[in-house]
Input
Amino acid sequence: MNICFVIASITIFHSYAKPVHDESYYQTQQIQGLTVPAESLNFLVLGDWGRNGHYQQIPVAEMMDVAMWQLDADFIVTTGDNFYSNGVASVDDPYWKTSFEDIYHGPHLFENWYPTLGNHDYRGNWQAQIDYSDVSRRWVFPSSYYAKRFELDSGEAVLILFIDTSPLNPGYKNEAKYAETQKQDSAKQLAWIEAQLTTSTAKWKIVIGHHPLYSSGKRYGKTAGIRDVLEPIFENHKIDAYFAGHEHDLQHNQPQGTTVQHFVSGAGSELRKVAQRPFTRFAQATAGIASVSVSNNELLVQFISDASKVLYQYSINKD
Output
């Protein structure tokens, strides 16, 4: 008698279990110490985040959902390095689902996302990240650099420039893995930045990019190249704040003799060590994000940890 054994192949898929929250959940999970200004434009700044749920990406995403609810926030911006380590291949890359859609699934995270590109995004199909705007309603990425203008209840305007710093960074000119950055017209972008800031009548001017001009972290002392390109423009036009990523931490830097406030929000997943430098106001290697609240006379920045605690607050005031 012949006995045949059939061994069934069983594939086990590990996926992130999505919790379902009701209103009581948000009441009990409120962020400690979070200031919620009245009549303000509120948004979150997330950086260096796309890691398929690894490191601290999931707890940061869950905290963001609560922060959006608590602030009644309007949108989310990214400071780049949206997908590690080599970007995405296309708009159909599975990474869109496993590193974005399945992670940032909270009901309050379905507001507009305004991304920027980081150096790791250029190691893949960076155009696909722009084209994904045609796939996802919340992913709003019209071009590698673009501007958004928002009006406050007072009638004053807020101008936010989303710039593409990788093509502007002299350090990438001879790096093969960043060859795509050198195919972009950096002179055209710089002229566009100048024109936007020159012609704008907005009371508040904010710039979002990937590379910091000053760093208290891994790249301390190594940011002169991009700083020489952008700082004269920022200082000349007296922008209020520049938000970057690239460094995997949370920072606020204010170099002596400068007027622009420099923030780093790159703690969306993996972390790196930071230190206190001569220009450091705050630096901490804690997973989290920055929240920004802009009202008629105040721009308030708050760093929030993945443990739902406010780590730092800084206010820019205009009479």
In short: Residues 1-14 have pLDDT under 50 and may be disordered. The first strand starts at residue 41 and ends at 46. The chain has one domain: 40-317.
